[in-house]
Amino acid sequence: MEKLKRTKISDLLKETDKDKVVNVKGWVRTKRGNKNVTFIALNDGSIIHNIQIVVEAGNIDEQILKLINTGACLSVTGTLVESFGKGQGVEIQAKEIEVYGQADPETYPLQKKGHTLEFLREIAHLRPRTNTFGAVLRIRHAMAYAIHKYFNDNGFYYLHTPIITGSDAEGAGAMFRVTTLDMDNPPRTENGQINYEEDFFGKSTNLTVSGQLEGELGALALSLIYTFGPTFRAENSNTPRHLAEFWMIEPEMAFYDITDNMDLAEDFLKYLVNYALDNCIDDLQFLNKMYDTTLIERLKGIVETKFVRLSYTEGVDILMKSGVKFEYPVKWGCDLQAEHERYLVEKHFKKPVILTDYPKEIKAFYMKLNDDGKTVRAMDVLFPNIGEIIGGSQREENFETLSKRIEELNIPTKDMWWYLETRKFGTAPHSGFGLGFERLILFVTGMLNIRDVIPFPRTPKNAEF
Ligand code: 4AD
Ligand code: MG
């Protein structure tokens, strides 16, 4: 007999052609029953729902049935029939079961349901098999796909910027060094410092904190580009919103001013949230039921709401007049903390806020200086439950102004000559922003800790899996 091809559970549950023989493969979620009949809930990760396998006594060898416990992996062949069980259209009457892999009930960590998210972080190698992580990972995939689709449909080119960088000028955060030197016995210069000229690249290199600077080079040739890759920050921030390795999406657009930049950011975020509502509703309903009953309502709210746009100065005014005692007191010139951002979004406006025109001292060197000489054309998009989800700006395209700023900040120009040359040869007004992918996934899933929206989180003292 020809080998029957596996059908995914997501397809089986849509199947209208009943009474045909099918093969399904997956992992056992539960097994229950009596001496006459056994019910096995099987999940293959293609969808949040399980398919029910019904085993009537005598149809399958007792010895095989004994090997089947929660967590075991099975290949089941049987007849697809209509199910009379509540909430399921079809089930499989098993004719043949092959046990690919057993899971000892004494030691399988997911034997019982209802583990805390903290415990699941300690078994990151197995947590994708839970409903929660299945849902999060499918949504994460859908969002990655939607990001590429959005940009492709809008005429942007995907630019691959380097992971290893020889410039540490962006200043977005502390960096991880990349080296092949023998750390126990590195080559030294005459004055005793490590001689990176002997290192792999002939200079000191690090993992990138952002693809932006190279992204700008692309935009000043292809007009509209985006990057989507991993970025690394060696900061010791143990918060529910920070990772040491996270993914960032950075569009960069020639001929866009800050208003065009804000329009794009708002349209992009609404598209992504709407895409999740249209394509991930089963998973969203699960998360809405189990974790946050306002999730779907909040997502719909974003799609329908016009984001508030206001300047940093106006924002600080509102915070100072609020009468709220913040942990970090607010005054003009201070960097805004998550508590300030969230007050504006969640308490004051109850809408996403795009804050612009920050003091130049608290923003990066490349942001375009306003005519007041004090503020720069920065824009941060602030979201409910998240705080900053996007950071971006119009870029300084004037060679003299940019050079002066680099000098003021003591950024070594030997690392920056290539960046400055774009302002020397055919410079153009341009803008861009960075969306933190995991912050987006936090928002879309309603999860509260960024460690729970990436398969293998990298945080201080944590790189086990
Ligand atoms: O605001 P940031 O640091 O901006 C940049 O890196 C610019 N080069 C972006 C650009 O204009 N092209 O980071 C951008 C976004 C933040 O708004 C936040 O969503 C996310 O990246 N982010 C982090 N996400 C997780 N863990 C961290 N440690 C993050 N740091 C920033
Ligand atoms: Mg930022």
Task: Write the SSE topology.
Blueprint: H1 9-12, E1 21-33, E2 37-43, E3 51-56, H2 62-66, E4 73-82, E5 90-101, H3 117-122, H4 131-153, E6 157-158, E7 164-165, E8 177-178, E9 205-207, H5 212-222, E10 224-232, E11 245-254, H6 258-279, H7 281-290, H8 295-304, E12 308-311, H9 312-321, H10 338-349, E13 353-359, E14 375-383, E15 387-394, H11 399-408, H12 417-424, E16 430-436, H13 437-445
Parallel strand pairs: 3-5, 6-10, 12-13
Antiparallel strand pairs: 1-2, 1-4, 2-3, 4-5, 7-9, 8-9, 10-11, 11-16, 13-14, 14-15, 15-16
Helix pairs in contact: 4-6, 4-7, 4-13, 6-8
The structure holds 4-amino-1,4-dioxobutan-2-aminium adenosine-5'-monophosphate (4AD) and magnesium ion.
Magnesium ion binds next to β15.
Describe this structure in words.
The protein has helices spanning 9-12, 62-66, 117-122, 131-153, 212-222, 258-279, 281-290, 295-304, 312-321, 338-349, 399-408, 417-424, 437-445; strands at residues 21-33, 37-43, 51-56, 73-82, 90-101, 157-158, 164-165, 177-178, 205-207, 224-232, 245-254, 308-311, 353-359, 375-383, 387-394, 430-436. The chain is 30% helix and 24% strand. The chain has an eight-stranded mixed beta sheet with strand order 6-10-11-16-15-14-13-12, with helices on both faces. Strands 1-2-3-5-4 form a five-stranded mixed beta barrel. The longest helix has 23 residues, at 131-153. α4 (131-153) crosses α7 (281-290) and α4 (131-153) packs across α13. The chain binds 4-amino-1,4-dioxobutan-2-aminium adenosine-5'-monophosphate and magnesium ion. 4-amino-1,4-dioxobutan-2-aminium adenosine-5'-monophosphate binds at residues 172, 210, 212, 233, 242-243, 246, 248, 250, 388-392, 432-434, 436, 438-439.
